[in-house]
Amino acid sequence: MRSVLATLLVHADQVVPVSSLIRELWDEDPPVSCLTTLQTYILNLRKLLATATGLTARQVAADMLVTRSGGYLFRTGRGDLDVHRFHQLVADGRRALSSGDDETALSTLSDALQLWRGPALVDVVAGRILEGRRQQFEESRLVVLEYLVDTQLRLGMYREVLTELAALTADNPYHEGLHAQYMRALYLNGRRAQALEVFQRLRVNLVNHLGLDPGPLAQDLHRSILNAEPIDAQGGLRRPTGDIVRMSSSGAARVY
Question: Which residues form a coiled coil (predicted)?
């Protein structure tokens, strides 16, 4: 039942076909009773929603978890899901970055990331649909983190980003952009040897696991650090000219 709710919420305000819900629950091997079981899940969800909202089950069926031809629709308002707020804050942060207002971008993107309370859909058994959305949400969060760190570096917050970058590079051992940001922050903090160690760790991970060398961005930065050349904080991500992320309305037992 939790997976049904999650699938409906990641497609909030859209009709989700019965076939998609069945595929999410049972992949390519649904039981003979799958339609009856799905209908039972929907009925139980309406009862739970009625209890949670104080509405009657009939009202929930008419206004919230609605039956449509061939499927179901979970109706929300624009402020009902955290992801709506996240998406709006990211859009505001993008506009601030595009206009060169780093201070506003820092505040807005920080507010967006504070809406996250852990990995997306962490307490839901994910099938194909939910796993795809989970990856989308996690990638969107990572992109926003990159832009936030880049903004912090431009504002001279070299020490403030070190702890976050240490964790991010450990969690994303092949992510060259994050490693380059970590190298830059360490070097600007006077920790040249550690910055070089970060590059070597990235290179070992890429070569050993993917058969690749680091790309030009990391290579050029490594060369500059190796030669003790002066660098600034302007060599990270470009300011966006379009959307940083595009996310569909989403949610689950936990909503991000």
Answer: none
